[in-house]
Design brief:
single chain, 4 helices, about 50% helix, about 0% strand, elongated, Ribbon_hlx_hlx, Arc_rbn_hlx_hlx, Ribbon-helix-helix domain-containing protein, CopG/NikR_regulator
């Protein structure tokens, strides 16, 4: 599994990082299992996630979205225009 992005700039810089032995042991156990070609590739992927994290929704937000969908299915919602009209708000 290669997740190296082709950004047009393929120059690599070497950095030295100290990590606890217990963390290094876990990395050594995981990188191949997860399909990476090398430990370095796995660490680069983790660093990319750190600088550009993917968005995940909390359980509370997912629950709220599900409730909102259910309300819409039961016709318990109104459009923004209708809500403004009901509340007497003019544009």
């Amino acid at each position: 599994m290669s997740t190296d992005a082709n950004t047009g700039d393929d120059r690599m810089e070497k950095i030295n990082v100290r990590v606890p032995k217990s963390l290094l042991d876990r990395i050594d156990e995981e990188w191949e299992r997860r399909g990476y070609a090398s430990k370095s590739e796995a660490i680069r992927d983790a660093l990319r996630d750190w600088v550009d994290p993917s968005v995940t929704l909390s359980e509370e937000t997912l629950s709220d979205l599900a409730e909102s969908r259910e309300q819409a299915e039961r016709d318990e919602t109104v459009s923004a225009d209708e809500a403004r009209e009901r509340l007497g708000l003019d544009d």
